[in-house]
Amino acid sequence: MTIRTDSISTEDGLARARDLVRPALRDALQRLDTATREVCGYHLGFWDADGTPRAGAGKGVRPALAILSARAAGSDAAVGVPAAVACELVHNFSLLHDDIMDRDTERRHRRTAWALYGESRAILAGDALQSLASELLAEAPSPTSAWAVRCLNAATRRLIAGQAADLAFETRDDVSLDECLAMAAAKTGALMACSASLGAVLADAPSELAMGLTDYGTHIGLAFQLVDDLLGIWGTPERTGKPVLSDLRSRKKSVPVVAAFDAGGPAAEALRSLYALDREMTAAELIEAAELVTDAGGRAWTEKAADRELAAALECLEPLDMPPDVREQFVVLARQLSGRDE
Amino acid sequence: MTIRTDSISTEDGLARARDLVRPALRDALQRLDTATREVCGYHLGFWDADGTPRAGAGKGVRPALAILSARAAGSDAAVGVPAAVACELVHNFSLLHDDIMDRDTERRHRRTAWALYGESRAILAGDALQSLASELLAEAPSPTSAWAVRCLNAATRRLIAGQAADLAFETRDDVSLDECLAMAAAKTGALMACSASLGAVLADAPSELAMGLTDYGTHIGLAFQLVDDLLGIWGTPERTGKPVLSDLRSRKKSVPVVAAFDAGGPAAEALRSLYALDREMTAAELIEAAELVTDAGGRAWTEKAADRELAAALECLEPLDMPPDVREQFVVLARQLSGRDE
After folding, report:
1. What residues in A contact B36, CB-CB < 8 Å?
2. Which of A325, B100, B136, B195 is the most buried (most CB within 10 A)?
3. Residue B304 in 3-state DSSP?
4. Residue A6: burial class (beta carbons within 10 Å; 0-12, 13-18, 19+)
5. InterPro entries attached here (chains A, B) (predicted)?
6. CA separation (Å) from A276 to A169, A251, A255, A259, A310?
7. Which long-range contacts does B316-320 make (Cβ < 8 Å, 24+ apart)?
8. What is this model's ipTM?
9. Is B182 in CB contact (< 8 Å) with chain A?
10. Measured between CB atoms, does A195 come within 8 Å of chain B?
11. Is B167 within 8 Å of A121 when comparing Cβ atoms?
């Protein structure tokens, strides 16, 4: 099956979804108390710390998927909006709390919420977004809204399990590649799978469609995480919003690194020695570590795995019955998320 | 209207609710990843840090209210169980996160979860309980489960607003009594109001009943918080699980203190001076501060306010149509929560 993507601008699809979702997100924030709203709106990029208005942050991949999934079921995009808003809220709740746990002080080229407002207010802001997500989704005018709430919170539970595994990896030096992939599937794949199907759930779609889109979302979520792991080593600060080689600097057990460890051999051993240092790596050592990941085959393995996940995602779409333009946009999003849009 | 309470043992009512809810809570934990489940089960008192099994912690007031509210609507207690579990999960999510924000190292005579497992795992454990609450409630076999999810999360939003206000009070010396009461109504009243009505919502009760029980719950929630504030100054460590005079030690702007400030006069001024000290209060100063709260009328004001809330709660029950034994148990619980059960 050949899919033409040259006529479709992904940016347009994402921008259309953002146009639908951002006003709903802004409205949702109005329900919060002033103090918590301040932190949430800052984090979501609706204003700066001094109150200067901004357009909003984030590419809005999850909202775009949720809206497409409602359209896949033959419904209006509007039917998917509560799902899109809920997924974006859960995603941002997890970012707010992850930044605290990881002690990250920058995100999207701005200070993180906890660094600016303190930990307590950032914890509460995350709690508030998590709660708003279920509140708004439960209000969706659909006979399946309770089922949608169940799906969203089951995905949240898996996302939490993924973050718990990620935390545990920090103090272990025997993380297997399988564990690493399972962690990524949970931490990133679960909410992506939910986003790619939740609009269809609200549209009361046949279960084959909702399940097929869930599988598609799992694969693109994993592909996205693999590409993100590659960018964490080889991405530019402009693209990632983080310092160069940041994942190596923090000795993260990301997939390319664990794949390198797993391959064994002299490069893997040298990389293990650098990861075992009881001091920070020097700039030269960081560059060497990146080269060792490549030499041990960790980079190539991860690139191939991402390609495999992209292919699997596209395969999931094939048997599904949906309007052709919706299918094309799912394809374009999958290619973009797996770094294959250039 | 006279209600006989001498024949009813509150402990029996609470114990019956616990017997229904604890197995469901234990089952719910099985859905979590091992690492997160460990923290949640410790916090809920199902095991100690070394794995030794325990019966579970907490009196289970909210579950008892939720189950009663299903019975008020003429349904079986079982109908209220998902509501009871969800409210208990939200209550415990808030305790887990509040302990981090307040840097409290002891709760229920045991170390708090963050003190034992670290902040990151305690944040995740709270997130997991919040998510489980909506997941389980959404699964309730009731046509009104989505509405119940909406009610629960709206209450959670108010609870968060209350905690945000409480945090903000720490750095303000101009907190008014009205603000203080509004904070207590949000932080404690909102979830208590939800608990007292959520079983009725699941039972698809007439809106007068659900709304009346919500009002009842708001009043007993406030009464409970007022009594809790009194215990925070005059309670024994055995009863509160906290050191004596702990709220004064941390210079909490609890209702008795703010009522004392509000009354003005020499005792209030002396109390303000103690609260403004730039060092910890000595044991003698703590005792003096407690006496000054009494002298300024803060203790009597709070006791009267708690009595007023209890009376208002009982008044809310009067017009509501429900089985007599259920009504009696609501009365007994109200009296117990407002410290009038002796």
Report:
1. 160-161, 164
2. B195
3. helix
4. exposed
5. Isoprenoid_synthase_dom_sf, Polyprenyl_synt, Polyprenyl_synt_CS
6. 14, 9, 18, 17, 34
7. B316/B212, B316/B213, B316/B215, B316/B216, B316/B219, B317/B212, B317/B216, B318/B1, B319/B208, B319/B212, B320/B72, B320/B208, B320/B209, B320/B212, B320/B213
8. 0.94
9. no
10. no
11. yes
Amino acid at the residue B281 = M
Q: Search chain A and give the residue with CA nearest B140.
A: A146
Which residues of chain A does B165 touch, with a Cβ-Cβ cutoff of 8 Å?
Answer: 33, 35
Residues 302-321 of A with CB under 8 A from B: none
| Residue tagged 């325990």 (tokens) | B54
> Which of A101, A123, A147 has its CB closest to that of B97?
A123
Question: Are B119 and A130 within 8 A, CB to CB?
Answer: no
Residue whose token pair is 């997939």? A255
Which residues of chain A neighbour B168 with C-beta distances below 8 Å? 35
Give dist(CA B13, CA B17) in Å, integer: 6
Gap from B222 CA to chain A (nearest CA, Å) = 19
Query: Cα(A248)–Cα(A245) distance, rounded to whole angstroms?
Result: 5
User: Cβ–Cβ of A33/B160 closer than 8 Å?
Assistant: yes
pLDDT in tens, chain A (342 residues): 344 444 445 567 788 899 999 999 999 999 999 999 999 999 999 999 999 999 998 889 999 999 999 999 999 999 999 999 999 999 999 999 999 999 989 888 899 999 999 999 999 999 999 999 999 999 999 999 999 999 999 999 999 999 999 999 988 888 999 999 999 999 999 999 999 999 999 999 999 999 999 999 999 999 999 999 999 999 988 877 777 788 899 899 999 999 999 999 999 999 999 999 999 999 999 999 999 999 999 999 999 999 999 999 999 999 999 999 999 999 999 999 988 664
Q: Each residue of B237-262: b (16+ CB within 10 Å) or e?
A: eeebebebbbbbbbbbbbbbbbbbbb
Alpha-carbon gap: A176 to the closest alpha carbon of chain B (Å): 17
3-state secondary structure chain A: CCCCCCCCCHHHHHHHHHHHHHHHHHHHHCCCCHHHHHHHHHHCCCECCCCCECCCCCCCHHHHHHHHHHHHCCCCHHHHHHHHHHHHHHHHHHHHHHHHHHCCCEECCEECHHHHHCHHHHHHHHHHHHHHHHHHHHCCCCCCHHHHHHHHHHHHHHHHHHHHHHHHHCCCCCCCHHHHHHHHHHHHHHHHHHHHHHHHHHCCCCHHHHHHHHHHHHHHHHHHHHHHHHHHHHCCHHHHCCCCCHHHHCCCCCHHHHHHHHHCCHHHHHHHHHHCCCCCCCHHHHHHHHHHHHHCCHHHHHHHHHHHHHHHHHHHHCCCCCCHHHHHHHHHHHHHHCCCCC
Q: Are A321 and A224 in contact (CB under 8 A)?
A: no
Distance of CA A125 to the CA centre of its chain: 19
> What domains can be seen in chain A, in order of their start residue?
10-337 (1.10.600.10)
- On chain B, the residues whose CB falls within 8 A of the CB of A202 are none
CA–CA distance, A235 with A231 (Å, rounded to integer): 4
